[in-house]
Amino acid sequence: MKFSLPFAHQRLLLGAVLALFALGSVLCCRYADEVLWADGVVASVEVLPDVAADLKITEISGDGRKWSTGRLGESLFPKPGRALWVRVVLRNPGDAALRGVLADEGFYSDHVDLYEDEGAGGRERWRCFRSGERIPAVEKPLGGREAAFPVELVAGATRTLYLRIEDHFGIPSRLVWWPSQQAYLISRTRANFAEALYFGVLLVLLFYNGVLWIRLRFPDLGRYLLYLAGLAVYMFIARNQWLVLGGSVHSPWQETAALLALGCSLIFLLDFARVFLELKRRAPSWDRLMGGLRWVAVAAVLFSPGLLWMREATLFHATVILGFLVQALLLIASLVAWRYGAAQARYFAAAFAAFLLGLLPSLRMVVWPAPQDDTAVAGFAFLAGSALELLLFSLATADRFSRLQQEKLAAEAALRREAEQREIMQEAYADDLALEVQERTRELELANADKDRILAVLGHDLRGPLTGLNRAAGHWETRPALAPGLQQFVADTARTSQGLLLLIEDLVMWARLRAGTSTADAHLLATLTSPVLTLLQNEAASAGVQLTASVPPQLSVLTDAVPLQALLRNLVANGLRAARKHVCVRAVVVAEGVEISVCDDGPGLPHSLANALNAGDTGQLPVVHGLGLRLCMEISLALDLGLGVRSAGTASEGTEFHFILRPDLS
């Protein structure tokens, strides 16, 4: 199953996700308008910083301490390993009771304890509520990540509250008064919903790009997936989402894990941008700069376990600043790559710009802090910028995938056109080749016919003189008055002229077989075999071989006499050359017809040659004494005689050639 989505649909999908996230962020940020800070109450805040951690509330509440004046919504900075005490006085001047919440809107301090005096008769009786990151959720007055305490103010009442804040790294705290518990809980619900939406977007992008990576296996897409995963882990830790897993992680493990995830995500982001934007080819100087920053991030990852033994979070803060610097420099690098032809660099520029814009509220709070600053709004702006960055990265990969698909379709179309043109050319070439083959075939047929006519003419012209020469030599060979040397010459002349005559007869027979002029007539078999035996009787006598025949005189067969006699002559001549003492020609009636066999007592044929004859494979037959066995096989095929051989290749059994003739039943 292929996974493919047109680029237009990909943009609609990503745009819908972006719109959903933006809508959710707007809805979730509306709760900021419901934070009334000190409206509805008269509040005073006093701070007692840098106090020994082991001081008790009874020591703090007594006289003699020098408190400094503060305000609700103001950032408070406890020193690492020390306690920060805050005294908050709330007075309700109205006619209705207030059931509000005093909350720490900072960065999840380790311990935030609230002490309330419930004494009577002038005696102090302190009631303690514990909250903070190290406190289990079930023990908190209000469950959740934040340190929050419900406070009830009856009409015209005044309450004095003491808060003890302690943190391993001295993380800032920020006290905020919510005049309504319901508004506080709704705001927390909206905050959780916005963060769930953010992490949902991350999971969707992880799934979508994971499927693309499984299909395409682009190296830069794999690095983007690693960046997505690293950023998701970092945001999970930084937003203190451990409650989702049913537990909690506190300082210094919290910061160490966050630093490790942040450093890894920066490494993957730098690798992703360098490969995707092709900085090594388009902007080598920027590529070297990004490579140097990557090694800085690697160093941060390697030194992250050192936070476990540190009292300051300087290394973590430096890595966060490094992340902001990387985003800003990558924005410039993407603009440079865009200038040098990287089409998808525009998405990168927009992505880094969105991230930095989402970071502006947080930077403004760091540079120009104010009591009215809303950390929730800054946090959601950061989430929105981060989500928009990731969505634009996905859009860049989708655009690249779409361009590759378009290029692939264009290449396939070009290949189809080329194949069609090639097919047309092949058809035209095939037609020309067919005409040329027909012309060459015609020429070869004419040449073959000319060859057969030449062979017939040569056979006819040479047959007469050689026949006369053979007869004259035979006549003089029988005269006893010749000198011994002359008589031997005459005998050699007779044998040579007879061999040449037989060779010419074979050539004429070969031409006749090629012309296909064979006709079958009724003949007495004895009249066909007798001339052959008489012709070869002298050769048998000179070789000391007895040549005999066993042919019924009245046996009649249907065959072409001339090629049959040529077949018998060649078989008997081969038998005489191989035989030791005897060659026999036999004819017997069998179920298939009349079987003619030529037997000798020679050493027998080799198995390979016998198998070739039985299989009708003329390509492995040698030429012995002219055309020899090859001509025999041609005659057998032309007359459909089924020539075969039985030979064990031993001296005791010899060789037997056999074939079947049709009987004359008329």
Could you describe the 3D structure shown?
With 666 residues, this protein is α+β, with helices and mostly antiparallel strands. 56% of the residues lie in helices and 16% in strands. It folds into 3 domains: 7-27 and 192-411, Rhopdopsin 7-helix transmembrane proteins (Up-down Bundle); 37-178, Immunoglobulin-like (Sandwich), CATH 2.60.40.2380; 519-663, Histidine kinase-like ATPase, C-terminal domain (Heat Shock Protein 90, 2-Layer Sandwich), CATH 3.30.565. It has helices at 7-29, 57-60, 181-216, 219-238, 253-276, 279-282, 284-303, 314-339, 345-367, 375-477, 484-515, 525-543, 561-578, 607-615, 628-639; strands at 42-51, 68-70, 75-76, 83-91, 98-104, 111-117, 126-131, 147-153, 158-166, 173-178, 521-524, 546-550, 556-559, 582-590, 593-600, 644-647, 655-663. β6 and β7 form a beta hairpin. The longest helix is centred in the middle third of the chain and has 103 residues, at 375-477. The model is unreliable at 1-7 and 27-38 (pLDDT under 50).
List descriptors.
alpha+beta, Immunoglobulin-like, Heat Shock Protein 90, 7-stranded mixed β-sheet, 17 strands
List the helices and strands and how they pair.
Elements: H1 7-29, E1 42-51, H2 57-60, E2 68-70, E3 75-76, E4 83-91, E5 98-104, E6 111-117, E7 126-131, E8 147-153, E9 158-166, E10 173-178, H3 181-216, H4 219-238, H5 253-276, H6 279-282, H7 284-303, H8 314-339, H9 345-367, H10 375-477, H11 484-515, E11 521-524, H12 525-543, E12 546-550, E13 556-559, H13 561-578, E14 582-590, E15 593-600, H14 607-615, H15 628-639, E16 644-647, E17 655-663
Parallel strand pairs: 12-14
Antiparallel strand pairs: 1-2, 1-4, 3-10, 4-9, 5-8, 5-10, 6-7, 6-9, 11-13, 13-17, 14-15, 15-17, 16-17
Helix pairs in contact: 1-3, 1-10, 3-4, 3-10, 4-5, 5-7, 5-8, 7-8, 8-9, 9-10, 10-11, 12-13, 13-15
